[in-house]
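Please check this chain.
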Amino acid sequence: MIFSTPIFIFVFLPCILAVYYVSPRKFKNTSLFLASLVFYAWGEPVYVSIMLFSTVFDFVNGLFIEKFKLQNKITKSKIILIISIVGNLSILFFFKYSDFVINNINQLFSLDIKNLDLKLPIGISFYTFQTMSYTIDVYRGKVKAQKNIIDFGTFVSLFPQLVAGPIVRYKTIAEQLKSRVHSIDKFSEGVRRFIIGLGKKVLLANNIGMIWEQISSSNINNLPLSSAWLGAICFSLQIYFDFSGYSDMAIGLGKMLGFDFLENFNLPYISKSITEFWRRWHISLGTWFKEYVYIPLGGSRKGTKKLIRNMFIVWALTGFWHGANWNFVFWGIYFGIILIMEKLFLLELLQKLPNSIKHLYTLFLVIISWVIFSIEDTAMLGKYLKAMFGLNSAPIMNNETIYLFCTNIFLIIACIIAVTNLPTYVNNKLQKFRYINLLYTCKNICYLCIFVVSISFLIGASYNPFLYFRF
């Protein structure tokens, strides 16, 4: 089940909210835990057992880690931590990467080992990282072990951020699991945030994504340079609105239930370097890898060679985390190389350039990265990149390019405006409007219109993917 479906919006969500708010305070986490299991089991009932195992596994690990640390038995505590990390990564590896390994072994040694053809459990990459961060933080002494398995199960299975994040670390919501604020204002804020995310997803991501689908499914060998760039730009817009829209909906749902999740996006396409871009894009993932991989490896504290090694490892893992295919590894290494260059010398050079040049530099590299990310077939990827640089003997432009651009010009302009800070700037200016009550009413009417139009699109839509759903 995904958020941008009528069954979630009109059936599941109202029922869950009704049960949640009717439940006494001490049973709210229980009702939320059970609701999250129902949400998860909606499409994959068998895989609930994996989530329940992970919950019990790391709940017990956390208790033992803390117990041994209090007894000053650090070695035993470290052994339990290693068991937790290895156990979690083994589950993730088995379901997500086993066929990838089998396929590569078959190619290398000309074998014919059959794939396991396992269906990827929804959200396993996200909740695996969450439970690992919990046991690591208990070992580090940053959080106390959770003594209530229902509260811990609520943290692991929390349905608003279960499918595609943001990655919620235990230490950010530990207190909220015990007590959190429920108010009409907070609920209303959550509804508004959910509607913004729904509009991003349904009205912008889905529609701009159809242009990419049409271009990427055409004959790549004869793809004009302008079409290749139009498609790449459209996919760059699609993945932003798709993923940030989902994060907005998750944050909004969290507020409806009294939780405050951290932001996951901060206008990444206004960045003036790739370093800045990754401070603004998928913030929760970048923070996780920095805190649990990069810094433990030594970060930048042990010289240039170790810095290069550490960044290379982090970004290869970041790419591999996104999917069991070589294009994701290439995508991670691509960013790793650029970020290493920026860290060593390129940022210093960029500081001397005008902001417009820095912005174009960033967008150019980011757009290319999304092509690498999107096309899993390496041969097809090579052909598409050739088309982007006019190396495939195709014309620069053809009638189809002109038609696609002209018929979607207003959608493209709307998407480009929406990725800038212009909407925020206008909103801040409107806050100074003299007739604030009238402004508040107009804004609520706009939210209602976005909701109604989004639902109208959903009812008749045949194209409604979630790009991060598979991760």
Q: What stands out?
A: The two ends are 15 Å apart (CA to CA). The chain has 19 helices and no strands. The chain has a mean pLDDT of 90.
